[in-house]
């Protein structure tokens, strides 16, 4: 039991916030370090996610072949030109504003096969992300019968492209590598 004299000579108790502040500082430093390590991976995964969706769509518009390697089938274009079914889609399904269907089929297929490669590699990333963002909007406008699930996919891709445009490609990109080589 403490007496009044003991209470006068006892060291003052630190307030709760003074005890917790150093712990919060350490937690904040840990979170910042983790986010700086994970940000390049997140940037790359966002680019990969969108690039793979657009590239797969481009493959579906061409004549493709496949290669099986270690039990996984890889599709690749046998031709960069649109298949006959693609011309039919652009003639009757997709209504691209301001472009004739045949030109829209060629440009759409080329965009879906070439732009994702640059996005994936992180080469000219902001320009490519902006071009794909506009392409994504045109795709949604051109296909009015798009189902709600498809519209949601396009919204997610648009958001990821907008983030990539605003934030840049990140450290896991050719743009970053070229920038480092130029600054030497």
Explain what the structure shows:
Helix 2 (16-60) crosses helix 4, helix 4 runs antiparallel to helix 5 and helix 5 packs antiparallel against helix 6. The chain is elongated. It has one domain (39-65, 80-183). It has a two-stranded antiparallel ribbon with strand order 1-2. The chain has helices spanning 4-9, 16-60, 84-92, 101-121, 125-142, 148-167, 174-183; strands spanning 62-69, 72-82. A hairpin with a 2-residue loop joins strand 1 and strand 2. It has 7 helices and 2 strands. The protein starts with a helix and ends with a helix. The longest helix is centred in the first third of the chain and has 45 residues, at 16-60. The protein is mainly alpha-helical and 184 residues long. The relative contact order is 0.12.
Strand percent estimate: 5-15%
Most strands sheet: 2 strands, antiparallel
The geometry reads as elongated
Helix content: over 70%
Descriptors:
184 residues, 7 helices, single chain, elongated, mainly alpha, two-stranded antiparallel ribbon
């Amino acid at each position: 039991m403490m007496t009044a004299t003991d209470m006068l000579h006892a060291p003052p108790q630190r307030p709760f916030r003074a005890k917790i502040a150093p712990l919060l500082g350490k937690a904040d430093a840990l979170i910042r370090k983790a986010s700086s390590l994970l940000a390049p991976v997140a940037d790359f995964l966002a680019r990969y996610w969108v690039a793979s969706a657009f590239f797969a769509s481009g493959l579906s518009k061409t004549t493709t072949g496949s290669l099986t390697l270690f039990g996984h089938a890889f599709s690749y274009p046998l031709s960069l030109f649109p298949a006959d079914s693609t011309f039919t889609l652009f003639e009757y399904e997709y209504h691209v504003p301001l472009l004739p269907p045949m030109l829209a089929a060629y440009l759409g297929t080329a965009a879906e096969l070439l732009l994702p490669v640059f996005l994936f590699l992180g080469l000219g990333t902001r320009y490519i992300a902006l071009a794909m963002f506009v392409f994504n909007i045109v795709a949604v406008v051109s296909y009015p019968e798009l189902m709600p699930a498809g519209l949601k996919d396009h919204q997610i891709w648009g958001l990821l492209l907008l983030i990539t445009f605003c934030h840049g490609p990140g450290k896991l990109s050719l743009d970053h590598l070229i920038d480092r080589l130029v600054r030497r």
